[in-house]
Amino acid sequence: MEKNNKISIHHLFWYFLIFSILGLVIETIYCYCVTGVLESRKGLIWGPFCPVYGVCGAFLILILDKIESKGYVKLFISGFVFGSIAEYILSYCLEAIYGMKFWNYEYLNWNLNGRISLLFSLYWGILSVILIKFIKPVIDKLIAKIKPHTRNIIELGIFIFLCIDCIFTVWGIQTYQARVIYEKESKSNSNNIIIKLKENIENNYFTNERMSRNFPNLRFKDENGKEIWVKSLLNK
Fold first, then answer.
1. pTM of the predicted model as reported, rounded to 2 decimal places
2. CA-to-CA distance for 169 and 20, rounded, in angstroms?
3. How far apart are CA 11 and CA 2, in angstroms?
């Protein structure tokens, strides 16, 4: 894609997809290096995806592509600001959807409500320079090589999968939350096939073991405002 061309919906889709995967890989490696613990950092129940990075990556490219000629410093500052804004908003949105927090930066200095921090905002600035100057041109060339008809079929298939993935993720986390936090089991005496299938999935697929393994960092606040890790309740 030439520099003066507008970014199409197709490009945004691939930016979201690729950065969802790259972001997950980078965060997993980073957390392992810092904590020495290798654990799941993904945001969906199926597949190697962390949508927060996908959304932020696509958003940053959409905004920053227009100022590419302004140089590295302008890109860094803009990425620092817009990346932080996107992360803050996404933190609220995810908490509203799932009813839980996926991350909290209160353990770091210079954080804002635990949703963003100076350290990670600096990372957004650095990442923005790398995205626009190095990664985006490569992705654009790869997208241009895919035939439009083939690309449309692939995009539709992945989009449908991601939609189903999101639905099952929300469903799974709500089931996990109800079972562990509120001690509500999925049980009924109904003979309805749909209800029985629903209960079977909730009890046998969305198990505590699977959910805690996929989402080990879920947390909520109790009546006193104290932050509780969901996985910590499993041992009680």
1. 0.84
2. 16
3. 12
Its domain, for residue 30, covers 9-149
Indicate if 48 and 111 belong to the same structural domain: yes
pLDDT (tens digit, 9 = 90+) per residue, 17-75? 999 999 999 989 988 998 898 999 999 999 999 998 999 899 999 988 877 567 889 99
Q: What is the pLDDT of residues 116-161, one digit of tens each?
A: 999 999 999 998 999 888 999 999 999 999 999 999 999 999 999 9
| Residue pair 1/7 in contact by the 8 Å Cβ criterion | yes
CA distance 127 to 118: 14
Q: How far is CA 44 from CA 169, 177, 192, 208, in A?
A: 6, 16, 29, 16
Give me the amino acid identity at 195: I
The answer to whether residues 123 and 89 belong to one domain is yes
- Residue 167 falls inside a structural domain: yes
Q: Which residue has the tokens 């959409």?
A: 62
